[in-house]
Design a protein that fits this description.
The complex is a heterodimer of chains A (495) and B (161). By secondary structure, chain A is mainly α. The longest helix of chain A has 30 residues. Chain B has one domain: OB fold (Dihydrolipoamide Acetyltransferase, E2P) (Beta Barrel). The chains are: A mainly alpha (495), B alpha+beta (161). Chains A and B meet through helix 3 of A and helix 2, strand 1, strand 2, strand 3 and helix 5 of B.
C-alpha cells in the first residue's frame, strides 16, 4: 500500500521546513558580520534584508503550520527535496541585491550551484565582489556540502527515529556510527579538524605569495570550503589560476581528494585501521579509474604535441573533475583547446565522481566499481559448472558480499544519472550548442562539478539555466528523495 | 621620395604597435597564433602582485577575459599602485611582453611582461547604497519582529499540539 500524504502531513512538512529555514537565516548572520568587519555598507543591507526575509518565512511556517503528526520518512523526504529549493531561492536574495547578476534567475543559479556544491557561475565582475558576498557564496558550499539537514541533525535530539530519513534523503547511504545523530556529529567533527588544517596550510602558501594577512585568511577559508566540500567557487574569476602557485595546486588536490573520500573511511582510518586506505574497494576503484583516465588524457594530449601541459594542467582538471570540485588552473577558454579525447576523459571522470557518503556528486565510484565487478562475476559464473552458485566479495571496511540488492541499487542509480546527463546534453544541443560541450556542461551540472566549456554564461537561454538548476538539485539529492516526493504528490491525485 | 615612403611606413608601424593592443580574448582563443610572439595588451590590474621564483605575477583583466603576466623586473611591477578589488579599481595598464601558450619556465599559458605603462590610475570605488535597500530592510524588520512576537506568544501561552 502506498502512503498518501494528507493535510496534517503537509502541515508537519512545512513546520520542519520552517525550522530548517530559520537555521539558514542564522547562517546569514556570518556575512552580515563580515560586512560589518570589512565596513561594506551596501552588502550589509543585502544580507540584513536576506536575513529578515528568511527568518520571517521560517517563523511564518513554524507558527502557522504546527506539527500535526509524528515525523516520519515521508516528512523527511519531502522536507529535504523542497528544502533545497527553498534554501537556494532564499540564498539568492542577497546575491541578487549585490547587482552582480543580470536577473534573479542568474542569482538563483549561483545559489543552487553553491548549495549543490557545483561551482558553475553566472556572476558578473567577480573580481570586484565584496567580501561579505564572497563569504556567503563559499558558505553555501559548506552548508550544502556538509548537508544543511545534517547540521540540523547534529543538534536535533528529539527526532532520532526519523533522523535516518533526513540522512538518506540527502543522498548519504552509509551510517558511520550506529546512530545517525552521532554520525552527523562525527562528520562535522572531521570537517572542523580538516578546516583548521586546510586554512592553516592555505594561509601559509598565500602569505608567502604576498597576500595581506587578512586576505590570506579569507581566501584560505573560502578555498577550504570550496575544495573540501568539492564546491569549486573561488573568490577570483580566474579560479586557482589566479594564484599562479604550484604548491597551492598540490594542496588543493589533497583537500579535494579528502573531500571526495567516504566519511566512513575517514572514521575507519582515524579510529580503527589505517591499512583500510590501501585495501578499500572505493579507493582501489578510484585509483584504477584515475590511472586509466590519466592515460587516455596523456595520449590525447601527446598526439597534439601538448604533453608538456599534462601534469601541471591536464592532471589537475582530471582530479578536479573526478572529485567533483571544479577548480581549474587553466586560463579562460583554454579547456576548449583540449582534444576531444581529452575532453571525453574529463567527462568520464565527472560522471563517476567520488565516494559514497562524501560531499561529491556523480554516479559514485562504489557503484561504478560494483557494475564492473558484476560484469566480471557474470563472466566467471558462465565459466563455472551449470549448477554452481557464485558470489564475489568486495572489501569496504570489512569483506562484504556483492548482493543482488547492492547490484540493483548501483544499476538503477547509475542509469538515472546517465539518462539525466544525456537529457541535459540533448537540451543543450537542441538550443544550438555543440554536442561535446553540451554533454560536458550537462554532466558538470548533474554531477555537481562546476567545470565549464563556456556554455554556462549569462547569455545562455533561460530554459537552459532552469534545466541546469534542476540537474544540480536532482544530482545533489541523488534523485530518490525527489522521486519519492513526486510519487507522494501523484498519489494525492489518485485519492 | 622612396626614403619618405619608408619613413612613413616605419612611422605607421610604430604608431600601430603603440596604439593597437591585442585583445586578451583573442590571445586566449587562438594561443597557437600568438605563442612566442611579442604582444601588447591593455587592461585593469586585478588583485595584488603575487610573488614567484625570480619575479612577480600580475593578473590583467579586459572584462570577460583575464591573463596572468610574469614580470621579472621589480621596478616594472612597482609602477602599479592599485589593484582591483571591491573597494578599488585597479590601475589600467598597457603591457608589452612575450605571449606563451605554455611557457618553458612555468608550463602555463601567460605573458612574460617587459614594459608597463600606466594609462590610468585606479580609483576608490564609491559604495552606492540604493535607498530602496534601507526601506526594504526596515519593512522586513517589522515583519520579522511581528512574526517573532507571534511566535513568542504562541510558545509561551499557546496550546501544545
Amino acid at each position: 500500500m502506498i502512503i498518501s500524504p494528507d493535510r496534517k502531513d503537509f502541515s508537519t512538512i512545512f513546520n520542519i521546513l520552517g525550522r530548517l529555514v530559520l537555521g539558514l537565516g542564522f547562517f546569514m548572520l556570518i556575512p552580515v558580520f563580515t560586512a560589518l568587519a570589512m565596513k561594506e555598507v551596501s552588502p550589509f543591507f543585502d544580507f540584513i534584508i536576506g536575513f529578515f526575509i528568511t527568518v520571517s518565512l521560517g517563523l511564518v511556517l513554524t507558527v502557522f503550520f504546527p506539527i500535526r503528526k509524528e515525523i516520519s520518512w515521508l516528512h523527511a523526504f519531502f522536507s529535504v527535496s523542497i528544502g533545497w529549493l527553498v534554501f537556494s531561492l532564499l540564498g539568492a536574495i542577497p546575491l541578487f541585491l549585490s547587482s552582480h547578476f543580470f536577473s534573479f534567475v542568474d542569482a538563483w543559479f549561483e545559489s543552487m550551484s553553491g548549495f549543490a556544491t557545483t561551482g558553475l557561475v553566472l556572476i558578473q565582475d567577480l573580481d570586484h565582489l565584496s567580501s561579505a558576498h564572497n563569504m556567503w557564496r563559499h558558505l553555501t558550499m559548506f552548508i550544502g556540502g556538509q548537508g544543511i539537514i545534517l547540521a540540523s541533525l547534529s543538534i536535533l535530539t528529539s527526532a532520532r527515529s526519523v533522523a535516518l530519513g533526513f540522512y538518506v534523503g540527502e543522498a548519504r547511504q552509509e551510517k558511520i556510527l550506529p546512530n545517525v545523530v552521532a554520525t552527523a556529529r562525527f562528520i562535522w567533527k572531521v570537517s572542523f579538524v580538516y578546516l583548521f588544517l586546510g586554512v592553516s596550510i592555505f594561509f601559509l602558501i598565500l602569505s608567502a605569495k604576498g597576500l595581506s594577512p587578512l586576505r590570506s585568511f579569507l581566501h584560505s577559508l573560502w578555498l577550504f570550503f570550496a575544495s573540501f566540500d568539492t564546491g569549486g567557487f573561488t573568490p577570483q574569476s580566474q579560479s586557482i589560476n589566479y594564484y599562479h602557485s604550484y604548491s597551492l595546486e598540490i594542496a588543493t588536490i589533497v583537500f579535494m581528494l579528502l573531500g571526495a573520500m567516504n566519511f566512513n573511511l575517514h572514521f575507519w582510518i582515524w579510529y580503527r585501521n589505517k591499512t583500510e586506505l590501501v585495501k578499500n574497494f572505493e579507493i582501489r576503484t578510484f585509483l584504477i579509474s584515475v590511472s586509466f583516465l590519466t592515460l587516455v588524457l596523456y595520449f590525447s594530449l601527446k598526439f597534439l604535441g601538448n604533453q608538456s601541459i599534462l601534469f601541471r594542467r591536464g592532471f589537475y582538471q582530471l582530479i578536479s573533475a573526478h572529485t567533483g570540485c571544479g577548480f581549474t588552473n587553466l586560463t579562460g577558454p583554454e579547456l576548449n583547446t583540449f582534444p576531444s579525447l581529452g575532453i571525453l576523459s574529463i567527462i568520464l571522470a565527472m560522471m563517476i565522481g567520488g565516494g559514497i557518503c562524501s560531499t561529491t556528486g556523480g554516479m559514485k565510484i562504489m557503484r561504478v566499481g560494483i557494475i564492473f565487478k558484476t560484469f566480471f562475476m557474470e563472466i566467471k559464473q558462465k565459466m563455472m559448472p551449470f549448477r554452481a552458485v557464485y558470489k564475489d566479495k568486495i572489501h569496504h571496511l570489512q569483506d562484504v558480499i556483492v548482493s543482488d540488492k547492492r547490484i540493483k541499487e548501483a544499476f538503477i542509480l547509475s542509469a538515472i544519472f546517465l539518462v539525466t546527463y544525456l537529457s541535459g546534453a540533448m537540451v543543450g544541443i537542441a538550443l544550438g550548442y555543440p554536442g561535446l560541450a553540451s554533454l560536458f556542461e550537462s554532466v558538470s551540472a548533474t554531477a555537481n562539478v562546476g567545470l565549464s566549456m563556456g556554455i554556462t554564461h549569462h547569455t545562455m537561454p533561460l530554459v537552459l539555466k532552469l534545466v541546469y538548476i534542476l540537474q544540480m538539485w536532482a544530482g545533489r539529492l541523488e534523485f530518490i528523495a525527489i522521486f519519492v516526493s513526486l510519487g507522494f504528490v501523484v498519489s494525492l491525485f489518485k485519492k | 621620395m622612396f626614403k619618405t615612403l619608408i619613413f612613413s611606413c616605419i612611422f605607421l608601424l610604430q604608431f600601430y604597435t603603440l596604439c593597437f593592443a591585442e585583445s586578451i580574448g583573442d590571445l586566449l582563443k587562438n594561443p597557437e597564433d600568438f605563442s612566442g610572439k611579442s604582444v601588447t595588451i591593455e587592461g585593469e590590474v586585478i588583485g595584488e602582485p603575487l610573488r614567484d621564483k625570480g619575479g612577480r605575477w600580475i593578473n590583467v583583466s579586459e572584462g570577460e577575459y583575464k591573463i596572468g603576466v610574469f614580470v621579472k623586473d621589480p621596478r616594472v611591477v612597482e609602477k602599479i599602485q592599485s589593484w582591483g578589488s571591491y573597494k578599488q579599481t585597479g590601475d589600467y595598464i598597457r603591457l608589452k611582453g612575450i605571449f606563451y601558450k605554455s611557457c618553458p619556465q612555468h608550463r602555463t599559458l601567460g605573458i612574460h611582461g617587459e614594459e608597463i605603462t600606466v594609462e590610468k590610475r585606479g580609483l576608490p570605488r564609491e559604495e552606492i547604497l540604493k535607498p530602496y535597500k534601507a526601506k526594504l530592510a526596515a519593512f522586513f524588520f517589522i515583519i520579522c519582529l511581528t512574526m517573532g512576537l507571534i511566535y513568542f506568544i504562541k510558545v509561551k501561552y499557546g496550546k501544545r499540539d
